[in-house]
């Protein structure tokens, strides 16, 4: 038993020496991330910065533009917006199974960009086109400067941007010193980062997610390194917790009169703070590991949703569809984008304004579309090859469907209310959330993902509605617990430094003595 205790002491001591600085960085950067997130362009921001469609130069109807581009097959998505180079363009994404047009070197899944005035397919994105996109984004006086192209930098570590690389970096020259990243594939603005976001991120997400390891020689091992450090961190906390409990005098005191045996003030702080905050520290490190989906433990292997079965096939534009001018006339004057969709057997157009819900129009008549009772539910029942057990209507957020602030890791996506929750009887216990206004599938949660929600979302971000709805209680609690974790870490830094200094034989120089008189 004594042999085991000795090895546990040694393991905790040297794991602490190796990891205490990292722990301190994790706690401090976590507090920063509560208020400044990693840069991203949310759907709401994107729409707000698109110029209005009314008055834009749109000479071609969508079927004409597709014909000019040589796209005859079914589509996965079709949009019209002033989104590339300051001009109105159609962005058409063919079904993946269809061959790309001759000479098309687009990344897989990237849309074909078609000039809505001439029908020309816009391919290479050069600096002038990137600057024009930036000027349209600014919607006002700007002194944009093109800073070159890049594959990846500190603020673009995101797989969602892969189809857009290389990225054009443009400094907007506005009051916020905004840097825009322009897609090298479509010419769209795909990310923005203000000076505040960039500066704070070096003390926030960039440190918290160990992004200094990204983009270099060890990039391919980044996930493995994070997983390994998390496992070692868990071992350090567990061994420290056991030692802390064993060394604490719950009955009586040591000869010093204290319940902790350590004479050093730093060691006492480390002991007491470790006992008080070891559970939350362990929960944060463990949930951080869970955020990485280590060894794909949250991948259930469930088959993809059968969206074609729900929608009655891929998107095919009507031969005599409503003109763009009629669609814009029927929608808000502030419409920024038209999106053609195939939804539950109907070809529809969503007219998206700068803010607020879209107007849903019939693609044939430009009249507002209304769903018949039970129509959406009947179509959505075909999404999963299993019985639809029940349909719930959520009129308020709950533990599994909720919203977070836009800057947070899981925030920034559209979470409308009310929403339909379809519960299926498949082996994966799938839930599907459906927007009853547009008919859009908002997401799927199977048993594995619901487990991830608790092991990561709750334990790491404390995204529990009773807390989130009672801010600043959430803020006070998380900051206080983070301070406790920082005390553990910083005291560990001091103790570790002293231990290393002794092992290396370093001595503090003695103070010079005064000469004898």
UniProtKB/TrEMBL annotation:
Top-level taxon in the UniProt lineage: Bacteria
Transmembrane feature ranges: 14-38, 221-246, 266-286, 476-497
Matching Pfam families: PepSY_TM
Keywords assigned by UniProt, alphabetized: Membrane, Transmembrane, Transmembrane helix
Annotated protein name in UniProt: PepSY-associated transmembrane protein
Annotated source species: Diaphorobacter nitroreducens
